[in-house]
Amino acid sequence: METNFVHHQSAHCENGVASNLLKHHGINVSEPMVFGIGSGLFFFYLPILKVNHAPAISYRPMPGSIFNKAAKRLGIKVKRVRFSNPEAAQKALEDNLQMNIPSGLQVGVYHLTYFPDEYRFHFNAHNLVVYGKKDNAFLISDPVMETVTTLSEKELEKVRFAKGALAPKGQMYYPIHIPANINLEAAIKKGIKDTCNSMLAPLPIVGVKGMRFLAGHIRKWPSKKGVKVANHYLAQMVRMQEEIGTGGGGFRFIYAAFLQEAAVILKNDNLKTLSAEMTTIGDLWRDFAVNAARVYKNRSNKNDVYNSLADELLHLADLEEAFFKKLKKAV
After folding, report:
1. Largest CA distance in the chain
2. C-alpha distance from residue 182 to each of 26, 115, 178 (Å)
3. Do residues 42 and 199 make contact, with C-beta atoms less than 8 angstroms apart?
4. Number of Cβ atoms within 10 Å of the Cβ of 298
5. Angle of helix 86-98 relative to helix 153-160, nearest 10 degrees?
6. Is pTM, for the whole model, over 0.85?
7. Average pLDDT in the 98-127 region?
8. 114-142 pLDDT, tens per residue?
9. SS3 call for 204
10. Dihedral-angle region of residue 107 (phi above 0 means left; psi in -120 to 50 means alpha; beta otherwise)
C-alpha cells in the first residue's frame, strides 16, 4: 500500500511535514509560510530545567505548536492521537495507509537508522511522514532528508515509543478537514502579531528578555560552575541553536523568507525591507554560534570570552526588540 505522496526536502522537520501534508491535500503553502503563520520563531530560557545536563534553551515553541497554530489560522482541522501501546499505534497507522492517508509522526531521533551517527542523540520531537508500506517496511518521507527512505516495523516502533523527555507515545497526526476557501492574508497577519507578542513578552524567560536573562548567566557560568561546566553549557546552547531543528540563525532565515512571501501577498513593501533586516540578524546569530563554539573547543584567542559572548547576545536582543516593534507596526 502506497499513497501518491510527493516528498519535498525542507530545513526543519515540523515545518516540512506540515507543508508536505498540506500540499498533498491541495494547499500549496511553502515551509516558510507554515513557519510564519504558525509563529515558529521563539526564544525560551529556563535555567532551573535541565536538558542533557544543561539549562533549557529553546529557539522554537513546543513540538506540534507550529502546525497546530498554522492549521487553526488557515481553518484546517488536524487530528492528533497518542497511543498506550505499539500494537494499537501500528494498527491505526496501517488503517490510515489503507485509506490513502499519509500520516505525520512524532519520533525520537536516537534510533533513526538512516540518520548519520553524529546526528543521532536523545531528542524526541522529530517529525516525519509515513506514506506507505511495502514488503513489511514503512515508506518514510523525512523532510530534512534529500530522498525518501524506509524503516522496518520494529525500527518504526522503537522511534515512535522512544523514552525520555517529550516522549512521543506513538503520536500520529493528519488533516481531516480542509475548508473550501482559505483566508491566507488573515492567517499571515495573525501569525506575525502572535510572533511579535511572544518575542516582546514581558516575561523574563521568553523572547528578547529571555535572551538578556541568558546573557547575564553566561557571564557568571565560569566563576559559578567552572570552565568545564560552562563550556558544556555553551556546547548545548549551540547544539540547540544550530543542530536541533535549525534553531537561532536558521530560523531567522526561514522567517525572512516568510516575510518576503508575505510582502507580496499583503502588498506590503515594509515587510520586504524587514525581511532583509531579519536576514542580517540571522547572520549575526550564526556568528554568535561560531564564536561560542570556538570558546568551548578552546580555539578562541580573545580575552574575557564569556563577557564577549554575553555582549554579542545583548546586541542581538536589542536588534530583535527593535525589529519586532517595527514588524508589529507594519501589520
Report:
1. 62
2. 12, 36, 9
3. yes
4. 8
5. 120
6. yes
7. 89
8. 988 877 777 888 999 999 999 999 999 99
9. coil
10. beta
